[in-house]
Amino acid sequence: MALSDQQLDEIRSARANGTATLRPCAPALEEILFEPIPVLDHGFLRVIDYMGDDAAVVQAARVSYGRGTRKVTEDRGLIMYLMRHWHTTPFEMAEIKFHVKLPIFVARQWIRHRTASINEYSARYSILDKEFYIPDEAHLAAQSTVNRQGRGEILTGDEAARVLDILRGDAEKAYADYNWMLNENPDSTVADPSRSGLARELARMNLTLNTYTQWYWKTNLHNLMHFLRLRADSHAQYEIRIYAEKMLDVLRRWTPLTYEAFLEYRHGAVNLSRTALAVVKKLIAGEQVSAETSGLSQREWRELMDVLGRAQDGEGRRE
Amino acid sequence: MALSDQQLDEIRSARANGTATLRPCAPALEEILFEPIPVLDHGFLRVIDYMGDDAAVVQAARVSYGRGTRKVTEDRGLIMYLMRHWHTTPFEMAEIKFHVKLPIFVARQWIRHRTASINEYSARYSILDKEFYIPDEAHLAAQSTVNRQGRGEILTGDEAARVLDILRGDAEKAYADYNWMLNENPDSTVADPSRSGLARELARMNLTLNTYTQWYWKTNLHNLMHFLRLRADSHAQYEIRIYAEKMLDVLRRWTPLTYEAFLEYRHGAVNLSRTALAVVKKLIAGEQVSAETSGLSQREWRELMDVLGRAQDGEGRRE
Amino acid sequence: MALSDQQLDEIRSARANGTATLRPCAPALEEILFEPIPVLDHGFLRVIDYMGDDAAVVQAARVSYGRGTRKVTEDRGLIMYLMRHWHTTPFEMAEIKFHVKLPIFVARQWIRHRTASINEYSARYSILDKEFYIPDEAHLAAQSTVNRQGRGEILTGDEAARVLDILRGDAEKAYADYNWMLNENPDSTVADPSRSGLARELARMNLTLNTYTQWYWKTNLHNLMHFLRLRADSHAQYEIRIYAEKMLDVLRRWTPLTYEAFLEYRHGAVNLSRTALAVVKKLIAGEQVSAETSGLSQREWRELMDVLGRAQDGEGRRE
Amino acid sequence: MALSDQQLDEIRSARANGTATLRPCAPALEEILFEPIPVLDHGFLRVIDYMGDDAAVVQAARVSYGRGTRKVTEDRGLIMYLMRHWHTTPFEMAEIKFHVKLPIFVARQWIRHRTASINEYSARYSILDKEFYIPDEAHLAAQSTVNRQGRGEILTGDEAARVLDILRGDAEKAYADYNWMLNENPDSTVADPSRSGLARELARMNLTLNTYTQWYWKTNLHNLMHFLRLRADSHAQYEIRIYAEKMLDVLRRWTPLTYEAFLEYRHGAVNLSRTALAVVKKLIAGEQVSAETSGLSQREWRELMDVLGRAQDGEGRRE
Asked: Which of A66, A311, C68, C308 has the fewest Cβ atoms surrounding its Cβ within 10 A?
């Protein structure tokens, strides 16, 4: 993880300077404010700023749904109620801003969530650092044989070694050539006066997709949870999921009641289709139901059996 | 303006309780945090929370466009540059939340700005207070004779008096009947046990559009300025413009550099069409240009002459 | 329902003039294009235009997830898969535009869905027609005694009659006074030359919230289904739900496969919380679970028993 | 430009099959529907579908602002009026969908416009083709010496040749290694049975940013013009501007009146700041104004002189 010395100085001085505010505070989040949380080999996540907390959600809900007493148990109940019934606007009333360093191919997945504000480091204006994501061997997986978008077994031996060599070698070669084409020294002076150097906005096209970029990413609590529901999920690609998992910790510090409701009604919840619900009713009534009589596809049947924690039939579990 | 005693207590206690935070603060905004700013006869505007300040804009821009020194003069120059060149994302990095009390017909204009989060007092769940907007006589205007959406001269004498009587009388009658249909006492007990009372979600349809509602309205600095550009404009209806004008003061306290840039490049700026630009070039070159030779419509010609502060021809200014 | 003669002429002529297009068509939707579908006493819903159909969803998904064969059975399977796994972007690739006439208090609920484009009839520029929503007696309900936002029993006898009289009387009085204040004849000439007339943007504030307005409402297939999930739900207020139910018919005509998937995975599906899932597993295993041992609140327990269609305990069903 | 034979077949058959529709059509756009418009060395742009035309804008505006006659001259005047006064919602009533093939680094700029629906070819599911953008020599520019984000002079001779060799060589090497790591034949069979092959979602990180991707991109007329205002501008990077310029042609075919208004009030218009407006007034009045007395920064002064087409002082025009 590479924060520059200047950035580290800024973090130290920002953390040294408390100010008085009349705004609501989230003490457990203040504890880690500005501090980089390492992710992957060179990436990180930092909370830069925030607005509101669980009380902001409750306050907004009470504007809409009327007033009441303010005990913590009631706040908790109200937040559980809002989450259960998909009342989303009160969760839009709190906001958070992250500074994230991440590989470009992860950034391309991430940015598909359009309901956030983003300022990304621009390689049109500035020069990217020489930092690439090289997976840990434990995450160097083969293509899944049963799922078009998943990973299968971990590569081993010569193939693993060769893959790591390729990833490292190609990224370094591409970066060295990027650097040569730019023709700039680290202090922005010209490296070789006999050459003009290629414009930054062009030279960047030579970089590989595992090069690290960074951005400020600001979103509200509702949209953060939407992001986490999709990206802290086991179907998400490991390289983005690991960021989402760190953000779950941030959510717990920031809005502990909302975090609890999120685990109960989103992250740990399941959606049963109309047909799956009918199957569940029959199972509870003690009726026999098989994949064939269920009305579900083979795949949905297996998914439902998984969700219900039931032993699979002879074919075993393939997916 | 009617804040309940409970709300006033809350404001007093919120303003009494400073906490330490590591987050950036806007001191001039903290001075008025939570305090109601009166608008119209019963409305108000309060800043409830905020995130970031001018420095947040600068910081985000520097992530995108590279680093530099941090003197105030440079921050000012950067903010002016960003505003001039329509770089919008850095201005999305600061956020503000208002509590607004406003007449329903104003709320219906306001909500057309979709890029905000809103929690409105719900008349499905709760009972609206007996408060209506009755215009001050100075704002009781006739329809414009030259503009389909504007106001003309101020009503006077009997007609003005009659209009005010109607507005007050119809609103009071409608509210009294709303109240009767609800069949609830102020303490939520049943008023007349011989009647069932009409559901709140139905009874509310009897209210007039000048009844006051209230909401939390949260948006970012960029979208706030977009709102202000349209609603603090002389073409906006007075009843929403007066809210926008109070928000301009808030903007000045919150982000003074951005405020200055907003006045320079948005609020006080003009957009010259391709044809109007050609006219301006000719005028600078000392050529004669008339409405007929300008290539502009009569209306655009008058608007351009207005913008340039030039005397009108014999017909005078009609709009 | 009041379309003007001019509007009816336009519908007739629009329906008479087919043109050839290379774009995908939805034949069952073309059958009802432009035709008003009556809703409530004076409202309607018309499909004005659309873009794409089920094939547009499939085509977009295949850009993302790769190519394959094109049989209908496979299209159906792909759409079911996309819906089940919350792949939303392919459903954004089809678009629809409605013309809706609706009471203002319904419009205020509706507009909270921000992901649509809206052009509403403006009472700043034009004069609203004399049309109000007066509920049918069968929908004149009391406030629910168990639910703060619901309806209870139907009003009867004198109270019902009196409520209808009030709603009709207050709306008519408010409209007549609106009309008097405007001081305009139907042909836009001045009614009483001795008076100036009040500006339209002011006079409108005297109208009651059951006055009808109209708008064009354009959204994509994904956002339409989000709207329908919330508004075609039994918890939605009747006066908006009835619009949503008519739109379900439109959805069936427009994108029959998506409609089928929507019923299966959204409209007829249930979300089980982490704790509710644990209860379901125990019930399937034949274990005894009661409200007390379930870990659920009383309210959630009742909701779960409802969903599972199980008989309630002695207290009966209260909500 | 590489459309597969299958895609070309599909285009031919789609263009052969007209259907009757009652919807409004844009004949000049139908002429090029589905046809690829070449952009850069391997990219293209195709209109896949659309909804509405100039009449849709007019129709929506008339819902809002009242009825009138329907002559073409009046439609033109209304569209000019809407554009001049920033009435945006009527332009949201028409929609268009493109299929675009573009280099990844261009896609990363493009996607920052969040108000569109996108389905991108997924390299998690599928294998990217071996196609990279290699700039034409005429566009191989040095970094600007006066502008941190612009281009300067064109590279020549050995340096140009070497840069092209690098771009081509690194992209080919990275792609060959991507291919080796995947260990798949073109028909999806395993290439070397002794190896597992790396998961697609990982292998893609080895590709360079000039690799081509493709997506469906759907937006409304208003947001399309916002995109074009920024990206068909001389400050935009050539590689995205060339796409925007082709889209301007599409706009002209689709909505000719809106296109005309766009050129007049956006593309060919200028924004004068408050201070610049004061300068213009003085110049028209025949007063002497210099950079020093103008109140403008040196840079803004030069920009204003450029806009007004006035000769620069001795230093010449540097930017």
From this structure: A311
